[in-house]
Amino acid sequence: MIRSFRFTVLAGLLAFPMAAGAGSDGIVVDAPWSRASIGTSRPGVAYMALTNTGDSAATLTGLKAKISGMPELHRSGTNADGVSTMEPAGDITIPPGETVSLEPGGLHAMLMRLTAPLEEGQTFPLTLVFEDGAEIEVEVPILAPTARGPAE
Ligand SMILES: [Cu+2]
């Protein structure tokens, strides 16, 4: 029993990157970055560009991160009064051949309830979860608190 259970788990893990025809297969992640945090009382944020090199749409539905007790996809904007706003982005669909950027002032990975400070020069793993069940783990470099874009 134990042996077959283990086999099932292993097969399940191996199946993720090989899910034939899944929209997330063609996703390429570029230039992930984050900013150092002051302690853990304020949320962290991560940015990156997601390009769909495949021929079917891929939908990003969520995030997982050990560094955060509550990682969420957010969208920043400006309301009618000119005040900056931020709200859960919901599912993000990336059409084939297109790039969706998580960048300051727009979509971002909000890392609430940090479990450890984000320290400049370090990296942390952030997992992107797609509608088809696939997951892509991204190693995110932590830049200076004043960083405005990915490292050159
Ligand atoms: Cu946010």
TrEMBL record:
Signal peptide: 1-22
Pfam families xref list: PCuAC
Keyword Signal recorded: yes
Keywords: Signal
Keyword Ligase among record annotations: no
Protein name (Swiss-Prot/TrEMBL): Copper(I)-binding protein
